[in-house]
Write a structure and sequence with these properties.
21 helices; alpha+beta; five-stranded mixed sheet
Length: 487
C-alpha cells in the first residue's frame, strides 16, 4: 500500500514526462472536482483502494480541508488498512476484535505508543469512517458494539487543556525567547535570530486578537489596512476560510498589535522580500499575481494559471494565500504579512521551529535571578489565545459587576443578556460554536491552589513540632525530656 496526494502542478510542470496522459489526468481531476491535496491510497498495482478513496472524496465534497484535515486522515486510514491486511481483513470485513487489537497496538505495543488524547482523535476519525461505510451500504452494520462506552475509546475523561500566561511569562516569551533580548532588556549578542521584530509582532497579534495559529499566520496586508490605516487606528476584518470549521466571525485588531506589525514591516520585511525576488520571479506561473485590491469590498483581482480571477479575502484558504503576491518596489513580493526565506508565507512547521527555539532559550535562562517561573509544559502559540480569553473574560466580568452595582439591576432582559454577558462576548470573539466551551475558562480566572495554600498554612510541620517530637513527648522518652529541659 502507498499513499499519494493529488497535485496538478507536478503534471502541468512536466509535460515532457507525462505527455498526453498527464493532460487527460488533469482533465479528469477537474471533471470530478477533485481538489489538490486529496489523499489517494493505492495497492501494489497502483489502483485506488476502495472504499477508502471514496470516503476521502466524500469528505472533500463536504468541504474538509485537503491540505490539512484530509492529509492527516490519509495517514490514519493507511495505517489501519495495513494492520488489517496483516490479519487477512479489509475495511468491509473488519471485526470488533480487529479494531480493539489495532487500538492496543497503537497505545501499548508499538515502540512509541501514542497517548490517550492522540488516540482518541484517531479513534474519532475511524468511527466516522465506519459510520459512512454503513450509511453507503459497504457494511450491514458497524463492527463496534456501541454501549455505554465505545470500544475504541481510551476511556480517559479530559477537559480542555487550557494554558495561560502571566504578564511576566508573556514578556519573557516574547522579548527574551522570541526576540533575543537579555533579562535586563539589553540586546543579547549570542542570539542567532535575524528577524526578532517579526516574532514579537506575531506574538502581540496572536495575544491581542485571540486568533489561532492558522488564522493570524495567514493574514494578508490589506486585511490589516497596511497603506491606508492611520497610526493609532484599530482594524476589523472578516475571518472565515482560515478559521476552524470555516466559522465566520469578525476579528478586532487593537492599535498596539498593529504598532508591533508596523515595526516589523518597516525594519525587517523589506530585507526579507529583497532577498527572494528572483525566487518568486521563477515561480511566476504558479502564483496568484494581484493587479487590483478593492479595500472597500474586501476583494482582490489578479492573474492565476493564465486567467484573470477575483477573490474575496475572507474566502481565500491558506493554500491560496501562500501563492498570493503583488508587484512591490523591488518586484514580486508576498501579500502575506509574515513571510520568511523564499519570500513565501511561513508554514506552521516554521512557526513550530521558532517556538521550540524560543523555549530552549528560555529554559537555558530559567535559573537566572530575574527569570519568571516557566510553565510545567512547553508553551504553544495557542497559549496566547487562552490568555486572551481569560484576560478579556476577567475584565468583562469585573465591568459587568461594576455596572450591576451602579444600576442595581441584573441582566434580566434577553437584549441585555446578549449585549453585555461576558461569556457570550468572549465566545463570539473566539469563534466558539457553543458558549459551553467558553464556560470552561471560568475555572481558571483564579488559581484555586492559592486557596489550598492559605487553608493549610498552619498545618505544615516546617515551623513546628514533627509527629515524632509529639510522640516522644507523649511517651515520656528520656531523650525528649532531656531535650525539653535543655530548652
Amino acid at each position: 500500500m502507498d499513499l499519494f496526494f493529488v497535485c496538478r502542478d507536478r503534471v502541468v510542470d512536466r509535460p515532457a514526462l507525462f505527455g498526453d496522459v498527464g493532460t487527460v489526468a488533469v482533465a479528469r481531476l477537474d471533471h470530478r472536482a477533485l481538489p489538490d491535496g486529496l489523499p489517494v491510497i493505492v495497492d501494489d498495482t497502483m489502483r485506488p483502494v476502495e472504499p477508502a478513496c471514496g470516503w476521502f472524496r466524500h469528505l472533500a465534497y463536504m468541504g474538509r480541508d485537503p491540505q490539512d484535515t484530509l492529509r492527516h486522515y490519509g495517514y490514519i486510514v493507511l495505517r489501519l488498512i495495513e494492520f488489517l491486511g496483516e490479519r487477512g481483513r479489509e475495511l468491509v470485513t473488519a471485526t470488533e476484535s480487529d479494531l480493539v487489537a489495532y487500538r492496543r497496538s497503537r497505545t501499548e505495543l508499538q515502540d512509541d505508543p501514542v497517548g490517550g488524547a492522540a488516540w482518541d482523535r484517531e479513534a474519532s476519525v475511524l468511527n466516522t469512517l465506519f459510520a459512512w461505510l454503513v450509511d453507503r451500504g459497504f457494511r450491514r452494520a458497524s463492527p463496534l458494539r456501541m454501549g455505554k462506552r465505545n470500544p475504541l475509546s481510551s476511556g480517559m475523561s479530559r477537559d480542555m487543556d487550557i494554558r495561560h500566561l502571566t504578564l511576566d511569562q508573556y514578556r519573557f516569551f516574547r522579548d527574551v525567547g522570541l526576540a533575543g533580548q537579555g533579562l535586563d532588556g539589553t540586546v543579547d549578542r549570542s542570539f542567532r535570530g535575524w528577524v526578532p521584530h517579526r516574532e514579537r509582532a506575531a506574538a502581540d497579534l496572536a495575544l491581542m486578537t485571540g486568533m489561532r495559529l492558522q488564522e493570524w499566520s495567514t493574514v494578508l496586508l490589506p486585511e490589516l489596512g497596511v497603506g491606508l490605516r492611520r497610526p493609532g487606528e484599530p482594524v476589523e476584518f472578516t475571518l472565515q476560510a482560515c478559521a476552524k470549521y470555516k466559522k465566520l466571525r469578525q476579528v478586532y485588531v487593537p492599535p498596539d498589535a498593529l504598532s508591533a506589525v508596523d515595526t516589523f514591516l518597516l525594519l525587517e520585511r523589506p530585507e526579507i522580500v529583497e532577498r527572494s525576488v528572483r525566487s518568486l520571479e521563477r515561480r511566476h506561473r504558479e502564483l496568484l499575481v494581484v493587479t487590483d485590491i478593492d479595500h472597500d469590498r474586501g476583494r482582490l483581482k489578479g492573474q492565476w494559471k493564465g486567467r484573470l480571477r477575483s477573490f474575496t479575502w475572507s474566502a481565500m484558504p491558506p493554500s491560496l494565500r501562500r501563492l498570493t503576491v503583488h508587484e512591490g518596489p523591488s518586484g514580486l513580493e508576498p501579500l502575506a504579512v509574515f513571510c520568511g526565506h523564499g519570500s513565501t508565507m511561513l508554514a506552521p512547521a516554521s512557526w513550530d521551529r521558532i517556538r521550540r527555539r524560543a523555549w530552549e532559550r528560555m529554559t537555558a535562562l530559567r535559573d537566572a535571578p530575574r527569570a519568571p517561573m516557566l510553565p510545567v509544559k512547553r508553551w504553544r502559540f495557542h497559549d496566547l489565545r487562552h490568555t486572551f480569553a481569560l484576560r478579556l473574560l476577567d475584565y468583562l466580568m469585573r465591568r459587568a459587576a461594576a455596572r450591576e452595582a451602579v444600576t442595581r439591576v441584573a441582566l434580566a432582559r434577553l437584549a441585555d443578556h446578549l449585549a453585555f454577558n461576558p461569556l457570550l462576548i468572549v465566545s463570539r470573539r473566539l469563534g466558539h460554536s457553543s458558549p459551553a466551551t467558553t464556560y470552561q475558562y471560568l475555572r481558571y480566572l483564579e488559581d484555586p491552589m492559592n486557596y489550598v495554600d492559605a487553608a493549610f498554612a498552619e498545618w505544615a510541620a516546617g515551623d513546628g513540632d514533627t509527629y515524632a517530637d509529639i510522640a516522644l513527648r507523649a511517651l515520656g522518652h528520656p531523650m525528649e525530656v532531656a531535650h525539653g529541659q535543655a530548652r
